[in-house]
Specification:
Cytochrome Bc1 Complex, Chain D, domain 2
Length: 399
């Protein structure tokens, strides 16, 4: 009997002592499981398609593309005839520009030398100039059919498709419209101007053959979009690697790729465009170029995940243009995961949990940047027309 009681007591105390150990093991197991579930593999990325998908109602043709190119570089589209699309989207800067936030109306000069004329009452453009390169692939996802008519555009996804996107800068006060016309009348004015120029009438008729009166706002958007869909860079060394050339990346670049996946960057920067095209709140600091804080389309400081392609040419970074280098971008994410919030208007409860859970270490940054540079492809079309049909300066007032 004494032996039986002792065995039960022994069993009881063994069980009591084992519970914490078992609990700790279970917690460790669950943590490992969560980490494995959260870890991304290279399968979440992808090479860009080598061909562009056109909308059914706007197939690309050489006359339409050439018309779009001329319109893109012609300041006839702006209210004061001083700003072209190419003023802020320059070939040498990956069809973006090297400024925190752009100077549109009443500006002069190019790149970092661009400034407002005096006197001036025009504000800076609201956000950093996004590259037009590869926007033909905006919204593309692995394993899903691609519909260019609903492709998300701008930092806040407020437009769908390049045809809609192309017309909005013309209507925006500080970008191209200026004081002379209202948002409701500017497109009518631009179309009227185009109709008075014989070369444009001829080119619209060739691009939209069969239409009785082809010079109108909808075709203006279609021509610009058709040209923009030719601006692609789909053969980076990373694309070559994903298509089977495993020598396209060096050993250290492949290590950088694995760190990119391990740290959690690919949770948002995924797919062939390295973007989930969703809005995320990161607490990015505002640009001092604006008196008011930019809280985004939903007033929650959320902005779209930008593509990581051709980053070499598109600094500075983020919607406010406040981060100058790729190294500093990654340091910013290291700070975010450590609980720091750079924008005083953003609360901790608003911060995106995907960013907070990232695990970027200073020692890994150089190799991740090395990998990001494999996403560069300099083979895109940089052709600038020598003249535009309006006779105005090509690119607008940039000299």
């Amino acid at each position: 009997m004494k032996y039986l009681i002792s065995s039960r007591v022994l069993f009881f105390w063994c069980w009591v002592l084992m519970v914490p150990v078992m609990g700790a093991c279970e917690q460790k197991e669950n943590a490992q499981k969560r980490t494995q579930e959260e870890e991304q593999t290279i399968a979440v990325l992808g090479a860009l398609p080598q061909y562009v998908t056109d909308p059914p109602d706007n197939p690309n043709t050489p006359p339409k593309v050439e018309l779009g190119r001329l319109l893109f570089y012609d300041p006839i589209l702006s209210g004061n005839k001083d700003v072209a699309c190419a003023t802020c989207h320059q070939p040498e800067f990956n069809y973006a520009e090297f400024l925190e936030t752009s100077i549109g109306v009443n500006g002069v000069g190019s790149g970092s030398k661009r400034h407002f004329l005096s006197p001036n009452d025009i504000p800076f453009v609201k956000r950093n100039s996004q590259s037009i390169l590869n926007t033909a692939f905006n919204g593309i996802r692995n394993g899903e059919d691609y519909d260019p008519t609903v492709a998300p555009m701008f930092w806040d996804n407020r437009a769908k498709g390049l045809e809609e996107q192309a017309l909005l800068p013309i209507k925006t006060f500080e970008e191209m419209r200026g004081h002379s016309f209202t948002e409701e009348t500017i497109l009518e004015e631009v179309v009227k101007r185009l109709r008075t120029i014989p070369e444009y009438r001829t080119r619209f008729a060739e691009a939209f053959a069969g239409e009785r009166d082809p010079v109108h706002a909808q075709n203006l958007g279609k021509a610009l979009a058709a040209y923009e869909r030719t601006l692609i860079a789909a053969n980076s060394r990373f694309d070559q690697y994903m298509r089977g050339d495993h020598d396209a990346l060096s050993t250290s670049e492949q290590e950088g790729l694995q760190l990119f996946l391990k740290t959690g960057c690919a949770r948002c920067h995924s797919g062939p465009m390295f973007s989930d095209f969703k809005l995320h709140t990161l607490g990015i600091p505002d640009s001092p170029n604006h008196k008011e804080s930019d809280d985004g389309i939903n007033h929650d400081y959320a902005f779209r995940t930008p593509t990581l392609r051709n980053l070499r040419y598109t600094a500075p970074y983020m919607h406010s243009g406040r981060i100058a280098t790729l190294e500093r971008v990654l340091e910013f994410y290291e700070d975010v995961s450590g609980g720091e919030i750079s924008n005083p208007h953003v609360k901790a409860s608003q911060m995106d949990p995907l960013a907070v859970r990232m695990n970027v270490s200073f020692q890994d940054i150089s190799r991740i940047v090395e990998f990001l540079n494999t996403l560069n492809d300099d083979s895109f079309d940089k052709t600038v027309p020598e003249r535009v049909p309006s006779g105005l300066p090509v690119k607008g007032n940039v000299n």
